[in-house]
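Thread title: Can someone regenerate the structure for this chain?

I was given the following input by a collaborator and told the matching structure tokens would be attached. They weren't. Posting the sequence so someone can regenerate them.
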Amino acid sequence: MSIRILVAGATLTLGAALLGAPATATPAATGQTARPASAFAAAPIDWGRCKDEFLRKAKGQCGMLTVPLDHANPTGPTIKLAVSRVKHRGSKFRGVMFTNPGGPGGSGTFVAGYGQFVPGKVASSYDWIGMDPRGVGDSKPALTCDKRIAKIGTRPPYDPTTDEILDTWVAKTEAYAAACGSSEAAALLPHLKTTDTVADFEVLREALGAEKVSFYGFSYGTYIAQVYATLHPERLDKLVLDGVVDPHGIWYESNSNQNSAFEKAIKGFYRWTARGNNDFHLGRTPAAVEKTYYRVLRQLARKPIDGVGAAELSDIALGAGYVNFLWPDVAAAISEIANKGTATLARKSYTSDYPTTPGGDNGYAMYLATLCTDAPWPTDLAATLADARDQAAKDPFVTWANAWYNAPCRTWPAAPAPAAVEVLPSSQKALLINETFDGATPISGARAVRRLFTGAVLIEGVNGTTHAGSLSGVPCVDNRIASYLATGKLPDRRPGDRSDVRCKAVPAPPVGLPDEGFAVNARPVAPLG
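Best answer:
Regenerated them for you:
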């Protein structure tokens, strides 16, 4: 899933008791059970050729890692995880760099090639490691429930303005949860929590023979790294977190806070599109562009065009809330519908992002499998609908889409953990990166982690709306990443609850119609989560 993976950090602040905890705490000190060393014997990885072209160009190697299905039963059934490696070059070796691009549900092997986008030569002194988490991508088995879940032309509008629409979404989301419970990979479902992925990374560390590892996480990958830092603090060296998930409010409150953040993030798209009115003809002011967008949504809710209905356009528009390099494509798709009455661009975009080929729902299935079980999820339908209605009144852009996207958690066939892992206060050094108006992971989450990790420093992309945009060619950000990886030293930490370094945001594309020659990100786009 290249666009529609909704995970974000919540905006809850830390309580006084937590703020008063010692600078370095152990799981036992806070009543949290530490995981014992795994009794599973990690086997060496048989590295070979990668099938991914990006990894081959990066001189990557690929293989499979064997891990227990249930880490509490290390002698029981096993599964295999797809892993990748871009080895260090030269005599200087600074260690292993674990990576994860986000999700949950995002394939992670290709991110091993991201070292090449770090300025200078420091990245070549690390072994960059990627992994498709359990159930994801090329890992075996991979979870898939119903490849037709997002089939174009089969979904009503997200906003349940009638009982018929409401009943359709309730039935659809309950049926998808049931399909996951009866899928061929259903045995995975009780073992797809973030803690399971963290345990897999520990087996991977052992298989690589590394005493310590560094971790570069994007989006949901920042949460994996935070949990790793809590459960295995003695194994962690450097930590880079981009698009930082707030570990509080996992995950129901996180999605609510994300709805509010996206309402702010999409304003940047409206402003940019208004400046390009000569090309898009959607309105000369941001308010006019917004009004046109909702008018088109209402039009498609009444009668879809070329199979594109209101739900499909909502999903396409969400990309503009995630990353600014999609602004030209999203504006062009809306413009075609508004001004020509056709939806060729929107249909092409949607069917590309939501394939109905075998396994096409793997990212969505795995997103749910983790979110629905990391922590308890509300099961009362009336209460969750009331929450959505209240928030949609002030944050209409993504609230109902998010509500139905996550709704299968209400009847998910695997039991959740009693509570989310408590990420503990620590003196861990970390480089945190977040743009001011990141919709997927609000900057309040980065500030919360900065409070938890007293050795952390926060770089803010001032007034930016791009999610997890490091290594995109902004020197103020990327040079500091390179320096930290080379020396272990961070910029000075400023007093107060704020960012420590203020950089320019990831630049927006030139105003106007899509330009095939323009690319904001030097790196491939990770799944946005």
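The first strand starts at residue 48 and ends at 49.
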